[in-house]
Write a structure and sequence with these properties.
Blueprint: E1 19-24, E2 29-34, E3 37-41, E4 45-48, H1 55-63, E5 66-70, H2 76-83, H3 92-95, E6 100-101, E7 110-111, E8 116-120
Antiparallel strand pairs: 1-2, 1-5, 3-4, 5-8, 6-7
Length: 121
């Protein structure tokens, strides 16, 4: 058994499907892995849980847009990899072999390898 700080214990009980969230801060694309997601209504409204501890948070606050990309099980290595390093100094698309695709409604990129991409803006 491994000990961890209590402030990180919440990561053991995250709910929802594992998804990628892509952002663009006006200069740089980024992708993060997140599993705290939920549908809030049929309008559609989605919720994710993030905060200043995540590099993507600043881009989300600045641009007010993102893409929710739904990975398939064959992307498990990319899901884990993107979720365990920061985009602050890493091009995660390049590092994990993900292909950014220009969206129709937002500057945040879609991910070609994913089952579905949902643009939010």
């Amino acid at each position: 058994m491994k000990r961890m700080q209590i402030r990180k214990a919440f990561t053991l009980m995250e709910s929802g499907p594992v998804v990628f969230i892509t952002t663009n801060d006006g200069e740089k694309n980024n992708v993060m892995t997140i599993s705290w997601t939920m549908v809030m209504g049929f309008t559609p409204i989605f919720a994710i849980v993030t905060g200043p501890w995540n590099y993507s948070y600043t881009a989300l606050r600045k641009s007010r847009e993102c893409v929710i990309a739904i990975p398939t099980v064959d992307l498990i290595d990319q899901v884990v990899g993107a979720g365990t390093c920061s985009g602050a100094g890493t091009d995660k698309f390049k590092k994990f072999g993900l292909t950014p695709v220009k969206g129709k409604h937002v500057r945040s990129p879609l991910i070609k390898e994913c089952l579905a991409n949902i643009e939010h803006g």
